[in-house]
């Protein structure tokens, strides 16, 4: 009977030790991933600090209708040359940014533009973020698309 009790105690200790080792491994792996993402984010912030993306801001604001609707054909025709020039200059600015930081650079340009012009109406904000999301594709660079979480208050 005491042998069975001793064996049960040894098995219980072994199971607890195994569970602790598994939990520790999971925690270490998760922490390593978080640290890597945090380091990348800090690197991007350092790279973008003090930089202005005025051409990108101009490009993003040119497609905005004051009514929050789709772009007007007449407006598009009259500003077509300005848009393509702003797009070309914006693409050049983004090429000078590390590929892993480009979406953050675009997000930075949107924030700068919002600070200058004030907050958008919901429809206007959707237009700006749609253009921002597709900007890398329009510039023919990677990543092809940026994902943004848009929160309306």
Automatic annotation (TrEMBL):
Database matches in Pfam families: Tryp_alpha_amyl
Protein name: 2S albumin
Organism: Sesamum radiatum (Black benniseed)
SUPFAM superfamilies: Bifunctional inhibitor/lipid-transfer protein/seed storage 2S albumin (SSF47699)
GO molecular function, one term: nutrient reservoir activity
Ranges where the Bifunctional inhibitor/plant lipid transfer protein/seed storage helical domain occurs: 44-146
Keywords annotated in UniProt: Seed storage protein, Signal, Storage protein
Superkingdom classification of source: Eukaryota
Signal sequence residues: 1-21
InterPro entries on file: Bifun_inhib/LTP/seed_sf (IPR036312), Bifunc_inhib/LTP/seed_store (IPR016140), Napin/2SS/CON (IPR000617)
Family (UniProt): Belongs to the 2S seed storage albumins family.
């Amino acid at each position: 009977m005491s042998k069975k009790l001793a064996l049960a105690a040894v098995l219980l200790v072994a199971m607890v030790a195994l569970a602790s080792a598994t939990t520790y491994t999971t925690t270490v792996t998760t922490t390593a991933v978080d640290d890597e993402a945090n380091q990348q984010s800090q690197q991007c912030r350092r790279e973008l600090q003090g930089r202005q993306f005025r051409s990108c801001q101009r490009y993003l604001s040119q497609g905005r209708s004051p009514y929050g609707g789709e772009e007007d054909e007449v407006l598009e025709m009259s500003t077509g040359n300005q848009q393509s020039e702003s797009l070309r200059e914006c693409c050049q600015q983004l090429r000078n940014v590390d590929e892993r930081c480009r979406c953050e650079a675009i997000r930075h340009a949107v924030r700068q533009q919002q600070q200058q012009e004030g907050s958008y109406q919901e429809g206007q904000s959707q237009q700006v973020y749609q253009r921002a999301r597709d900007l890398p594709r329009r510039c023919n660079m990677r990543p092809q698309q940026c994902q943004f979480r848009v929160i309306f208050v």
